[in-house]
Q: What sequence folds into this?
């Protein structure tokens, strides 16, 4: 991990700026289940970080610990250099949860008023309502609001205390494409003012498109940590596909640079980090035609890194 | 690495923790509004005890039948005020089950509100509705003109009923944390009716068979019911009533604290 050194570098430049999130050797066990299994993660102030992983990878357990909702079984956690609960009481951290978290029998305005009353500092209620676009529905009972309206309310509540760190747990699940896009453009605009954002998602394209940095979790451990480009590079390679009538795998054993060869009827698929050599060989030494070369997307990288056949030792960058 | 090259230093110095663990009047007012907005709760904790008093407390013979320092109508009024206050405070406390089911308590844990401040808000909310129940039954008594006792006893018994119902705010909180479902309210209605019979609110315990009496004296409304009537009856305080009330207060409070500590589940 080079993050730690980068982080201490940042700390050196600006004096005593603590990490927004600092997790070391974090473990969380539920009985015999190790939901979080030795996570080290440092997030500097101002970063937008995606925590990506399949269900059960430990995303939510890690987030709960960062928010002070649960205690780690082992390891340490600090948020802006303090205990998560202290950061929460100072309004430094807030979160938008997937579902729930709202009282159906309060109106939208009452919900905002209630939450605002609990913080030492909070933004004015009318401003919060208008910037979240929920002024028109302010007097409506929360239970009568649509899913999208409720999500806007949750977002408004999370920004009420002007948090330095905003945590989003699968914030767009259940939103349509358009809703998702406008949600993320709001988040990005907001983050430009220096807010740190950590979001959990299992939508790869979201992590790719909106995060500065992706932390890939698998079975409670960080298996990769870097920019989207770096994650893709970790499982570098392209697929060369060609039509070759009457082909057998034996005919193709000598392809230079091939990592794996697969034959499906008259189609041959070659995985390679040197696709040029494979293509050259196929076109010059065989009767292959209709040749295609495709890069593996982040989706493949994700599957390669989080699939169960990947050895757990797959190193972080 | 993806570390932002220019780390922006957040201003942490101006960030303060709210006083009193986040307890404030706005939140309390909204909680009371919520509780009174629930028509079912209002009917069962205010309208029902008043109707019961009008049906059972205005019996022809009750205004002439002398009981201790007053009459029988006053005795029934105190019992039904206690019933109403107990229903009100139990419901008020048990609202936490709805809050848990809707994920609101989890949302509150992401705010500065301390668990102690939250519980105090819940108890004050429950006691507010409890006060309304007592007031409603006592106003019905005043209007009917039947109950007879000194002004000091009206105030003294009303106040002791109200303070005593605190025990059931703790009971409601315990049930609210213990029981998961939203239909906890129906269950509470049934439990309280049984406890009211056992505690002698509707029929004096002395009229039950001896075996039933022996069991009834251990139930949570028995001690409280005897204590709130003792000023009217002028029969002194039996230490077993005090032990009964305090023991149940400890059990309910302990149970609520125990369940609250374990309440970390997500919804």
A:
């Amino acid at each position: 991990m080079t993050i730690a050194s980068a982080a201490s570098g940042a700390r050196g430049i600006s004096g005593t700026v603590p990490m927004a999130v600092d997790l070391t050797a974090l473990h969380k066990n539920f009985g015999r289940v190790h939901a979080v299994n030795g996570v080290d993660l440092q997030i500097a102030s101002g970063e937008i970080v995606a925590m990506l992983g399949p269900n059960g990878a430990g995303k939510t357990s890690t987030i709960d610990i960062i928010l002070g909702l649960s205690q780690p079984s082992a390891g340490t956690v600090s948020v802006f250099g303090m205990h998560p609960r202290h950061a929460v009481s100072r309004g430094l951290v807030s979160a938008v949860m997937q579902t729930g978290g709202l009282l159906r029998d309060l109106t939208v305005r009452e919900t905002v008023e209630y939450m605002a009353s609990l913080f030492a500092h909070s933004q004015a209620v009318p401003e919060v309502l208008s910037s979240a676009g929920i002024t028109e529905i302010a007097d409506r009972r929360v239970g009568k609001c649509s899913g999208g309206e409720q999500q806007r309310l949750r977002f408004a509540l999370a920004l009420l205390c002007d948090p330095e760190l905003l945590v989003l747990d699968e914030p767009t699940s259940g939103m349509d494409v358009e809703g998702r896009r406008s949600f993320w453009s709001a988040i990005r605009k907001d983050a430009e003012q220096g807010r740190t954002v950590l979001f959990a998602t299992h939508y790869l394209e979201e992590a790719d498109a909106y995060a500065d940095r992706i932390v890939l979790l698998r079975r409670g451990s960080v298996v990769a940590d870097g920019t989207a480009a770096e994650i893709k590079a970790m499982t570098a390679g392209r697929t060369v596909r060609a039509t070759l009538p009457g082909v057998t795998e034996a005919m193709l054993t000598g392809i230079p640079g091939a990592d794996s060869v697969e034959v499906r009827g008259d189609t041959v698929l070659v995985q390679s980090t040197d696709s040029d050599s494979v293509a050259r060989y196929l076109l010059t030494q065989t009767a292959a035609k209709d040749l295609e070369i495709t890069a593996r997307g982040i989706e493949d990288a994700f599957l390669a890194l989080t699939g169960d056949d990947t050895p757990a030792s797959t190193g972080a960058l | 690495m993806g570390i932002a090259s220019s780390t922006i230093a957040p201003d942490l110095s101006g960030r303060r923790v709210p006083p009193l663990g986040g307890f404030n009047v706005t939140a309390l007012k909204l909680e009371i509004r919520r509780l009174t907005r629930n028509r079912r709760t209002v009917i069962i904790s205010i309208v029902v005890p008043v109707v019961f008093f009008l049906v059972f407390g205005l019996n022809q013979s009750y205004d002439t039948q002398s009981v201790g320092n007053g009459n029988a109508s006053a005795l029934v009024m105190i019992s039904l005020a206690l019933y109403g206050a107990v229903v009100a405070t139990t419901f008020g406390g048990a609202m936490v089950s709805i809050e848990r089911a809707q994920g609101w308590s989890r949302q509150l844990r992401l705010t500065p509100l301390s668990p102690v401040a939250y519980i105090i808000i819940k108890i004050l909310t429950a006691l507010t509705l409890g006060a309304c129940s007592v007031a409603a039954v006592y106003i019905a008594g005043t209007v009917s003109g039947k109950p007879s006792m000194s002004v000091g006893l009206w105030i003294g018994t009303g106040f002791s009923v109200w303070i005593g119902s605190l025990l059931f705010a703790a009971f409601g909180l315990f049930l609210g944390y213990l029981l998961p479902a939203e239909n906890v309210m129906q269950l509470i209605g049934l439990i309280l009716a049984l406890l009211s019979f056992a505690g002698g609110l509707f029929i004096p315990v002395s009229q039950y068979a001896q075996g039933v009496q022996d069991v009834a004296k251990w139930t949570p409304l028995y001690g409280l019911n005897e204590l709130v009537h003792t000023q009217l009856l002028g029969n002194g305080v039996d230490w077993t009533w005090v032990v009964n009330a305090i023991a149940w207060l400890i059990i309910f409070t302990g149970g609520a604290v125990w369940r609250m500590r374990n309440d970390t589940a997500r919804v």
